[in-house]
Design a protein that fits this description.
The complex is a heterodimer of chains A (553) and B (206). Chain A has one domain (6-10, 33-552): Up-down Bundle (Cytochrome C Oxidase, Chain A), CATH 1.20.210.10. Chain A is built from 18 helices and 2 strands. Chain A has helices at 6-9, 28-31, 36-64, 75-94, 97-111, 119-141, 157-160, 165-192, 205-237, 250-284, 291-305, 320-348, 357-380, 382-388, 392-422, 428-455, 469-499, 543-552, and strands at residues 424-425, 501-502. In chain A, strands 1-2 form a two-stranded antiparallel ribbon. In chain A, helix 3 runs antiparallel to helix 4, helix 10 runs antiparallel to helix 11 and helix 13 packs antiparallel against helix 15 (392-422). The model of chain A is unreliable at 1-11 and 543-553 (pLDDT under 50). By secondary structure, chain B is mostly helical. Chain B has helices at 7-10, 15-46, 48-56, 60-85, 89-119, 127-130, 134-170, 179-204. In chain B, helix 2 packs antiparallel against helix 7 (134-170) and helix 4 runs antiparallel to helix 8 (179-204). The longest helix of chain B has 37 residues, at 134-170. Chain B is elongated, with a radius of gyration of 21 Å. Classes of the chains: A mainly alpha (553), B mainly alpha (206). The interface between A and B is large, with 51 and 42 residues.
Chain lengths: 553, 206
Amino acid sequence: MSSDTLAISHNGHSPSYLEYEGKHKGIWAWLLSTDHKRIGILYLIAIISFFAVGVTLGFLIRLELLTPQGTIVGPQAYNEFFTLHGVIMIFIVVIPVIPAVFGNFFLPIMLGAKDVAFPRLNLLSWYLYITGGTLILLSIILPGGAADTGWTFYIPYSVRTGTNMIFTLSAVFILGFSSILTGLNFLTTIHRMRAPGMGWFKMPLFAWSLYATSWIQVIVTPIVGITLLMVVVERVFHVGIFDPTLGGDPLLFQHMFWMYSHPAVYIIIVPAMGVISEIIPVFSQRTIFGYKFIAFSSLAIALFGSLVWGHHMFATGMSNTSEFVFSLLTFLVAIPSAIKVFNWTATLYKGSIKLEAPLLYSLAFIFLFSIGGLTGVIQGALNVDIYLTDTYFIVGHIHYVVFGGTGIALFAALHYWLPKMFGRMYNKKVAKFAFWNIFIGFNITYFPFFILGWMGMPRRSYHYLPQFQLYHVISTVGSWILVIGLFTMLFNLLMSLVRGKKVTENNIWGGETLEWQIQTPPTTENFEDIPNIIDGPYEYKQNELTTVEEEVN
Amino acid sequence: MSTQEHVEEHVHRDDIRSRMGMWLFLFSELLLFGGLFLIYSVYRFMHPHAFSIASKEMNTFFGTMNTIILLTSSLTMALAIAAIQRGKKILSICLQITTILFGAAFMVNKFLEWSAEFREGNFPGSAVLQSKPQGQILYFGLYYSMVGLHGIHVLVGMTVIAFMLRFTIKGVINKDNYVKLEAAGLYWHLVDIIWIFLFPLFYLIT
């Protein structure tokens, strides 16, 4: 992206946002900062810490499942483990991570703005996030024990269990509020703060994906908020809402839960797709193929994705008509996702590919997300779904989509943008080594889930039949490789912040979006003068392609 | 660069931006209550008879009084904004105080109404309510949840207007910069509109 004022804006090296000194000193310069970049880093630290907790729990779950009977913990602890793993990974890690960290940091820069629309609201949503996370941690420590209902909080478990359910539910309510405020902030930022000349179709695709995501956040999060709040009210005041003994309808809870939680899958995946849409053009040095298709497919996903929640409930005995409609819409929602996959691969075609860590992770994303997406389509078929409901097949599907999708896209984003954020480069060889560990470990861990599910292994089960053991053992061994990979990756990135080679040039990877035109690391103001945008975000010289075509002619 | 003030001071005032943020927030608030309205309609469909009997026990007098109070307070709030736009600071301050007082009257009324219900034993978990049919338990569960959540919104609205009052007195809100007061007004109207739907659903339809 070129602009007429940028060339003069980075002549000298000004103090970066990391060195900036405002009216607050020390730790408060961060905890009270309304700078979108510092808030992004605050989110990054918090989310990576919770991610480590979630990984540990997942690792322990796999270890427990090494043998058909009890291995390391009892059944109650096991229930708490898989619930906490789900709650932490979904509500605290993957839902906020890409918008809150990279959206906060790069959205204003990509739009040519100095900050988000409401900087103080942005800080407030971080504090709400921390409050929610703290409540979850409290639920573990306090007597009573962590929630043991599964992350779906189904009635009647969640009104009956004696565990610290109120903490967990309130935490998710507060996290939802934080998510709404972030969405509201981004929507307003995108509408009102684009630099002069940046029309809607000159926005980077990451901004488009955040736009679609923010709409889902604002529209559906209040529904789950009120639903979980009602369960809290039900537990505290014995008000009859969902509890069947008081006349309530547990299936109504399921509807209302999935009305949010299915679109939440798209809150999780759409920003990840945005990251991939940024990385692929840069590392193949080609204009993105089908810009408008990718932009509009995000909106199409947001629209269709909000209308498919019933497919989580095919086994509950809905009417045939609603089952048919939900199944049809589920098939339809696969189309915009497929459009993106085809566009990414078409972008790579005949590009000058640089196989760096961010691109490796992006390619892994396409591969794993395709498996995750297609196994989702399988379950969209009514009769197959009845057989597969609540088996390991769904556990495999969710891990391929959420971890293979958003998790891997998060790693791609870290390797792509971290050098820009901190001005230090990680060890590229170690990064590639970690990548292969993660990729291989991931598939060994989660692919057996599909086989197990097809064989009939139920999810969330503490005991299992001996014939399933072989696949559980393979999966557990895979989890060890995966954890080694994750540890190596995080260690490499952390070490790079201390000892990594200093990066001084603005454009590390040869990207065309605005964040690569400003200083590394950026100044507090991002831009000395607001840039005037002339070209689109992916205007690469396509000389290779034309020469090849000329030779053919 | 480091001698400059922080980013926030550099951003120019953009009233459209503030209004857009407020409208999006109101939108999410509407959906929050929308979830409850959805639960209400499903249960009303499942238990039409019990809902009809339970709603006859409601005291329509309190409900009607509160509707009048809240609608009038919306008027005084709108007038407070109109007054500040015309530079009539004192008038605006008086109207904002009136709005807060109306809000307080609403809450007092609500308190009296709930006290009466509690005396009759119609409160969640009570023996009287537990002995009733399930549809009526759900009705009272929804009544306390929805009206209670609305009541919390009235309190929040009053607090917000109290802050606006302070800003108006200090002159932060004035003839040229009244977007904060407008946003508070929007919130107050939302509280009003939700009540307009709660009132017939719980008091009028039988």
